[in-house]
Amino acid sequence: MVFFETFCTMIKENMKIFKKVLESKMKIRFHDCDPFNHLNNSRYIDYMVTARGDQLLDHYGLDIYRLARTKGIGWVSAQTQISYLVPAFLMEEVTIQTQLLYYSEKSLLFEASMWEQDKSVLKSVMWTKLVHFQLATQKSHLHGIELMQLFAEVVNPLPEPVDFETRVKHLKQPK
């Protein structure tokens, strides 16, 4: 209920439309790099998921960690597709954009893209399917009405259905 009250307050006070594509910057750290000073492949996922969690809190007031602690609900990864295009280097500041592409009563599909700081070069693209999960029962769980309302406000579906590889090719094209 706290989330819903926060969500309603944000709408009433700001009377603004939520951004659909969220963006933040992160610096590539030494402990996340391989011996060549490239961001380790598995850490791309960590950076993008961390950025998404921070963005949800900053832009929508959705604290996924508090939901897990107080309500025993969260999301688990069901599938991740990632394409590594250009290395991210030690101490480089990157821009990470995320967006919700699809939602249902039990699942979400979000996209994350990592860019050079000025967004001139695409470094990586990821699609992750998440399943809503009840920690007590260890089973999938229906999204509540408050979450479904939020998802309806922020979903940013692609103009036409495409597979992951086609989407990566489209994003790589110069703008």
UniProtKB/TrEMBL annotation:
One of its GO terms (molecular function) is fatty acyl-CoA hydrolase activity. InterPro entries: 4-hydroxybenzoyl-CoA_TE (IPR050563), HotDog_dom_sf (IPR029069). Keywords: Hydrolase. CDD domains: 4HBT. It holds the Pfam family 4HBT_2. Belongs to the 4-hydroxybenzoyl-CoA thioesterase family. This is Thioesterase-like superfamily protein. It comes from Sediminibacterium ginsengisoli. The lineage of its organism: Bacteria, Pseudomonadati, Bacteroidota, Chitinophagia, Chitinophagales.
